[in-house]
Design brief:
Distance between the termini: 13 Å
Structural class: alpha/beta
Strand content: 5-15%
Largest sheet: 7 strands, parallel
Number of strands: 7
Order of helices and strands: HEHEHEHEHEHEHHEH
Helix content: 40-55%
């Protein structure tokens, strides 16, 4: 994923400054080390004037490179936090590192996730547990840690979870994965109630990406079929997801919402279309 070369250092977003009572809010984006959707979200938030905390587990070198590029190109201070979110204490630690560095945390995007196809007959209990520990529990623990920091801030904050459009129409060979992603929707509504009850300016929402990144082994013919299966007639981009994150951050009258960003895929796609998809 390339970084656009700006003509000048971006000015802080007036909407972000108004919502968060700060000209340069702080955003922590989990799973943003590798060049996937989380990285695109971090870049987009930096373009809005946010100071950025990237997070990676195994892609720490890539995260460090991304942090340096964000600072050089956008003038935004950027740090890297590391750790496997399913391990005890990691979520609390990366939130605390972010808060200690910047003195606040305004945005959390839970983008870290794992997925890979497994035949239903081959699914093990350990695999199901691992999906829940990383995709669901990791998101919950990060949201709790960051959300309680936001509760203590007069300006509140915005938590954005990343779900999956296909929880409403699951595809084959992902039976271990979908329960973990389906839980994100209920978690979002529950967290919106819990945190909003403690501070009315804390909001929690969810984005359900459609086909925005494809595995490298997806053939051209499958790409064309997938594009044709959306109402807009094309495959999306990580920037489409990043723009939805920006909307949730800027609009302070939206909370507890799960928003499909899928080109109409969830209501239009024909049955039987199976491709290798990478939405995180």
């Amino acid at each position: 994923m390339s970084f656009p070369e700006p003509t000048a250092v971006p000015r802080p977003s007036p909407a972000f400054a108004r919502v968060f009572d700060c000209p340069n809010p702080v955003a922590l984006v989990t799973g943003s080390g590798a060049p996937r959707v989380g990285r695109a979200i971090a870049i987009a938030l930096a373009q809005q004037g946010c100071r950025i905390a990237l997070h990676a587990n195994t892609s720490t070198d890539k995260a460090s490179q991304a942090a340096a590029e964000i600072t050089r190109r956008f003038g935004s201070e950027a740090i890297v936090t590391c750790g496997a979110l399913q391990h005890d204490g990691v979520a609390d630690r990366i939130v605390e590192e972010t808060h200690s560095q910047f003195g606040r945390i305004d945005v959390l995007v839970n983008s870290a996730a794992i997925w890979q196809p497994t035949r239903f007959e081959d699914v093990t209990s350990d695999e199901v547990r691992r999906y829940f520990e990383i995709n669901a529990l990791g998101s919950f623990l990060c949201a709790r840690a960051a959300g309680l920091k936001m509760v203590a801030q007069p300006s509140g904050g915005s938590v954005v979870n990343i779900g999956d459009w296909a929880t409403v129409r699951p595809y084959l060979d992902h039976a271990a994965y979908f329960p973990s992603k389906g839980s994100i929707e209920v978690m979002t509504r529950s967290l919106a109630v819990e945190l909003g009850h403690r501070n009315r300016r804390v909001r929690v929402n969810c984005i359900q990406p459609g086909p925005v990144l494809l595995s490298q082994d997806v053939s051209e013919s499958h790409q064309q079929k997938l594009a044709a299966s959306t109402l807009v007639g094309k495959i999306g981009t990580p920037e489409n997801i990043a723009h939805a994150v920006q909307f949730f951050c800027e609009n302070d009258f939206v909370t507890g919402v799960c928003l499909p960003v899928d080109g109409g895929r969830s209501i239009f796609a024909p049955d039987g279309l199976q491709v290798g998809m990478n939405t995180g």
